[in-house]
Amino acid sequence: IDVVISALNTDGTTTLSASMPLIIEAMENEGIQRIITIGTAGILQSRTIPNSLRYQTSESKQKSTRAAKEHHEVFDLLKQSTLQWTIVCPTYLPDGKRVGIYRIEGDFLPEDGVEISVPDTAEFAFSQIKSNDFLKARVGIAY
After folding, report:
1. What is the CATH number of domain 3-142?
2. According to the model, what pLDDT value does residue 48 have?
3. Burial environment of residue 90 by CB neighbours within 10 A (0 to 12, 13 to 18, 19 or more)
4. Considering the entire predicted model, what is its pTM?
């Protein structure tokens, strides 16, 4: 195994934050360094309030912050690990169709980005297997 791709959902539970320490430990024990995981745009940096994440500000349109807090915990766990991680952070994520054209930005949601389809998010995440552009980084993705 050369890379782990995680698309675990929060789904109203702590499955994501409870699983990630186990995934990190297993990867470190097996000498697997690369993980690509799907997060949420809520854990990207705020453009309006320095040193805050989007979910901690009015930039996020979500009424509940529960899922973002779960993803924030995973972000913190990965930062503390020895792994070469990338967190792909889509905004609103409808099933939709593959468009093949989207915008990405390190640590921020692309300006005025409001959605990105599941297929386009998956395509970008898969492309990161052979890319070193966003190691130990979050990357926002939107149309």
Report:
1. 3.40.50.720
2. 93
3. buried
4. 0.95
Q: Please state the domain extents for the chain.
A: 3-142
**pLDDT score, position 63:** 73
Model pLDDT, residue 61: 74
Taking the C-alpha atoms of residue 45 and residue 6, their distance in angstroms, rounded to an integer, is 22
List, run by run, the mean pLDDT of 10-residue segments along the chain (143 residues). 94 91 97 98 95 92 85 97 98 94 98 96 97 97 98
**Is 68 within 8 Å of 53 (Cβ atoms)?**
yes
For tokens 């009015």, name the residue. 58
3-state secondary structure the chain: CCEEEECCCCCCCCHHHHHHHHHHHHHHHHCCCEEEEECCHHHCECCCCCCCEHHHCCCCCCCCCHHHHHHHHHHHHHHHCCCEEEEEEECCCCCCCCCCCCEEEECCCCCCCCCCCHHHHHHHHHHHHHCCCCCCEEEEEEC
The tokens of 29 are what?
A: 């024990």
